[in-house]
Amino acid sequence: MLSKRLAEVAGLFLKLGVIGFGGPAAHIAMMRDETVNRRKWLSDKEFLDLVGAVNLIPGPNSTEMAIHIGFLRAGWPGLITGGVCFIVPAMLSVLALAWMYVRFGSMPQATWLLYGVKPVVIAIIVQALWGLGQKAIKNTITAIAAIGVLALYFAGVNEIALLFGGGLLVMLAANYQRIQGKILGISFLPLGGLGILSQAAIPFNMQSLFLIFLKIGSVLYGSGYVLLAFLRADFVVRLGWLTDHQLLDAIAIGQVTPGPVFTTATFIGYVLGGTGGALLATLGIFLPSFIFVAVSNPLIPKIRKSPWAGALLDGVNVASLGLMAAVSWQLGRASLTGPFTILIAVVSFLLLVRFRVNSTWLIAGGALAGLLSAIF
């Protein structure tokens, strides 16, 4: 029975690792479609609790979702299998592009592929937002938190502050009767202000490469833009191992390949230290996620039973959806650039909602549409 479940976990996350374009929001939407709608491994409530949990810990959210789901489906072997199978396809594709980059001195172009795939990704995210939102927005206060997070994100407020602020708002509102007449003092750790410790420049070596990526994987909250800031501070400014141009190429490679954006580490590792450097960098940035999930997963049911922690998780859930909606809007503006891309998005959404077409086929169809647009 366990071996069958383990094979199911491996098959699902290998597939998602191959077709998972669009970043964490799209990955989580695809995971929901597969594990909640199609395979019935989880309920929407259980899935939402995992979304909230991964937002409370550092690291790449969609990879941590794969690790959580693997653990729930197939125990400790599933924890490792889910994460590894989601990471490996992206790592191998980035490794191949890094080899071409180093050998030929330029980045292969994949604009035609993304032109057709991105509108499909937008449709998948919107469908997931609608389904998850119906479960997460339970009352007036959770609706206010979601809308407030969405508005404040566009006003430039730090996303980590919004995440925990939304959670605290819902927690305090839900437990208002418990805190009447009491003085409640709350202190905030400025997570968004975690800095990079300065030190003297050192020559390149594999140990430092691994430790730098281990540090980033252990403390990094937020989007790929936050990752860019960490990478630039360490590899360009402090160490001088990369140029700004090389760093931007690394980020672009992470964006145009499927799977977790954190495989940018694979590209940087290969450019600096060949295949060995690529493997060490990848291990360093993803290893903390496995540890965080292993520690936090058993706590999720206990968190849900506590009136305080459960309300906090509800607040983090709706704040996460607010951030996901904001990112979707930004992605949509960048992706829906003309009538053809809008048509792809609308048709994809209708196929998802009305006919429940598997997202795998929609991604493939989007790629084909992009290819045809490039030819004609």
List the main descriptive attributes of the protein structure presented here.
376 residues; mainly alpha; 78% helix
Structural class: mainly alpha
The number of helical elements comes to 16
Poorly predicted runs of 5 or more residues: 183-200
**Would you tell me the overall average pLDDT?**
84
Q: State the share of residues found in helices, binned by percent.
A: over 70%
The radius of gyration computed from the alpha-carbon positions, rounded to a whole number of angstroms, is 21 Å
N to C succession of SSEs: HHHHHHHHHHHHHHHH
Quick rundown:
The protein has about 375 residues and is mostly helical.
Please describe what this structure looks like.
- By secondary structure, the chain is mainly α.
- The protein has one domain (2-190, 293-375).
- 78% of the residues lie in helices and 0% in strands.
- It contains 16 helices and no strands.
- The protein has helices at 2-19, 24-38, 44-55, 61-104, 111-136, 140-154, 159-174, 176-179, 206-219, 224-238, 244-256, 264-296, 300-305, 307-335, 339-355, 359-375.
- The radius of gyration is 21 Å and the shape is globular.
